[in-house]
């Protein structure tokens, strides 16, 4: 009986000695940057073991290396705290070796970055920041230019400001300005691609399809009446004021 207890004790001690704080290199989500991990395994199954203790310890180490590597590849080295939480939770799960009977074990993990990996993370973040600033400035410039060229008057000014602008071609060119501006207007920034903005574009296209001033006055009057019916008197008043303002301009032009 005493010899059996002593044998089990030696086996348990040998397994623990073979699993004490082994280190492993783990890949991260960033190519070329990896984690360094220290894993401490705990075998929960009591001896005797189905295989020699050296094989049990080796199989446990191999299983834990694979388990840590599977989850570390999805972790961002720039967010070390989250990587520690994710990898730590993953390795604390209860696992079994496919032996007969199975050997159960769990583990704890300490995750860190070596100095070279920390320097690589810092360089990567700096490059990402520079690229982000470049992208933002380019996008702002593009959006501002597109918004400007969506206005026929601004597009015409751009054409006039050319060094080789020919004023004699202005009447012929002016006929094409609206078409070009409308093409720019169709491509709106992401925050303006809402149903409201689309509705405004449809309404603008609908109103401009009636060139006759009498028709326009009828449409604006109907629009104001609809707003008034929807209990939006302020919008109705603005629409009528807009209509009256254009009517006054038209009458002045006729006189």
Which key terms come to mind for this protein?
single chain; 255 residues; alpha+beta; 4-stranded antiparallel sheet; 9 helices; elongated
The end-to-end span amounts to 123 Å
- Structural class estimated from helices and strands: alpha+beta
Q: Mind telling me the C-alpha Rg? A: 37 Å
* Largest sheet entry: 4 strands, antiparallel
Percent in strands: 5-15%
Oligomeric assembly: single chain
Strands side by side in the biggest sheet: 1-2-4-3
Give the count of helical stretches.
9
The helix content, as a percent range, equals: 55-70%
How would you characterize the overall build of this protein?
The structure is a single chain. With 255 residues, this protein is of the alpha+beta class. The protein has 9 helices and 4 strands, in the order αββααββαααααα. The protein has helices spanning 2-19, 53-72, 80-91, 115-149, 152-160, 170-185, 195-208, 213-229, 233-254, and strands at 22-27, 34-43, 95-97, 103-112. The protein has a 4-stranded antiparallel beta sheet with strand order 1-2-4-3. Strand 3 (95-97) and strand 4 form a beta hairpin. Helix 2 (53-72) packs antiparallel against helix 3, helix 5 (152-160) crosses helix 6 and helix 8 (213-229) packs antiparallel against helix 9 (233-254). It is elongated. The relative contact order is 0.07. The mean pLDDT is 82.
Lay out the secondary structure.
Elements: H1 2-19, E1 22-27, E2 34-43, H2 53-72, H3 80-91, E3 95-97, E4 103-112, H4 115-149, H5 152-160, H6 170-185, H7 195-208, H8 213-229, H9 233-254
Antiparallel strand pairs: 1-2, 2-4, 3-4
Helix pairs in contact: 1-2, 2-3, 5-6, 8-9
